[in-house]
Amino acid sequence: MSFDDKVNEFLEKVEHEKIMIETQFADIESYIKDHDDIDYDKLVSILSHFNTLNIQYEQLCHDLTIFISIFKSKEEQQIRIYKTEELVELLEAEVNKINNQ
User: Fold this and answer.
1) 55-64, long-range: CB within 8 Å, 24+ apart, which pairs?
2) CB 29 within 8 A of CB 86
3) Coiled-coil stretches, from where to where (predicted)?
4) Taking every pair of C-alpha atoms in the chain, what is the biggest distance, in angstroms?
5) Distance (Å, rounded) from C-alpha 29 to C-alpha 94?
């Protein structure tokens, strides 16, 4: 296997892992939007899961950015980042809803 093939294989694996985390972000967002009756324990669990995923995602994207900047040409140095702002706003709204009960 050539060096370029190994680089591409690594990038594919990391991109797959990134997509898996993004899918979980989307699932959390969908769950919150579809359920108006999230209780305190569920919300704590969701927040904990989100925080863990977010830390993993930030580290993964950082590593991917560094790797791409080293091994890819300027034209190939693109990375798509999942925007978590809306998800954070939904989580904050749920926390506020529970705090106001």
Assistant:
1) 56/21, 57/18, 57/21, 57/22, 57/25, 57/82, 60/14, 60/17, 60/18, 60/21, 61/18, 63/14, 64/11, 64/14, 64/15, 64/18
2) yes
3) 74-101
4) 61
5) 11
Which carries the bigger pLDDT value, residue 86 or residue 24?
24
Q: For 39, how many CA atoms within 13 A lie in the half-sphere containing its CB?
A: 1
pLDDT tens readout for residues 17-26: 999 999 999 9
Q: How confident is the model at residue 82 (pLDDT cuts 50, 70, 90)?
A: confident
- In whole angstroms, give the CA distance from residue 93 to residue 88: 9
Residue with tokens 């919150």: 32
